[in-house]
Amino acid sequence: MNIFGYLQKLGKALMQPFAGKVKKSAATEDLSATQSPGQTQQVAAAVSQETVKKDTALFARQCLKVLGGHQNVTQIDACVTRLRLTLKDTASVSDDRIKALGAAAVVRVGDKNLQIVVGPQAEIIADEMKKIPVTDDLANVEVSA
Question: Using CA atoms, how far apart are residues 46 and 52, in angstroms rounded to an integer?
Fold first, then answer.
């Protein structure tokens, strides 16, 4: 097992007991009244991570569609918590649409690079994206507006 695999398992193990509590409190309380803005963002990010974890293969297909498909994506890579992507055209990519899929954040690095913060499952999602054949038609993949 490489270091990324180890960190991924460690991240999952550490988040497992915490994720259920965050999800429950986020669904039942108005957090803006009891927490600072930074804490509220952390809770929202943890809840959106649950969306990504549910089906990494579906998230990978949706993400690839929002990014413009294989025609726009020239390189797919991952670090511990981020998808690292090189694109032909980053201007055509909507940060809001990516976040609507469940990503915690989008970071633009230079003219051609984009990083999508998805949590410790980033490597799994990157692998799923790489598995999608270039010939696959992503037109039938549903993406929320």
Answer: 10
Out of 10, 13, 79, 109, the active site residue is: 79
Q: Count H helices, E strands: the chain? A: 5, 4
Q: Let me know if 79 is a catalytic residue.
A: yes
Alpha carbon 16 to chain centroid, angstroms: 17
What tens digit of pLDDT does each residue of 76-133 get? Answer: 999 989 999 999 999 999 999 999 998 999 999 999 999 999 999 999 999 999 999 9
Q: How many whole angstroms separate alpha carbon 139 and alpha carbon 37?
A: 37
Dihedral of CA 129/131/135/141: which sign?
negative
Give the number of other CB atoms < 10 A from CB of residue 130: 13
| Structure token pair of residue 92 | 């055509």
Mention every residue, 6+ apart, whose C-beta is less than 8 A from residue 105. 45, 99, 116, 117
